[in-house]
Amino acid sequence: MTDLDDMLDALRASPIDPRLQALAPSVLDGVARRRNRIAVRRSLLVAGFIALGTGWIGSMVPATPASASPVAIGMSDYAPSRLLGR
Description:
Distance between the termini: 104 Å
Transmembrane segments: 43-61
Largest sheet: none
Shape: elongated
Structural class: mainly alpha
Strand content: under 5%
Protein name: DUF3040 domain-containing protein
Number of helices: 3
Keywords: Membrane, Transmembrane, Transmembrane helix
Radius of gyration: 35 Å
Order of helices and strands: HHH
């Protein structure tokens, strides 16, 4: 066991290859990009399910026939049609 400990101590004391130091940021950037892609896919999936659910529920609700109101709501006394006597 002491041989293994001596070898690990020698490896720990050796200088680090500069290519290995540059490896960590690129790996972390790749992980962040993948996490962002997963978040975007998840949000699109949720939005799609909400849209499908809303459409399905909307098709199940009985529709009432549309009818026009006899008086325009919010029509001012100063509207052009009222001023012209229409």
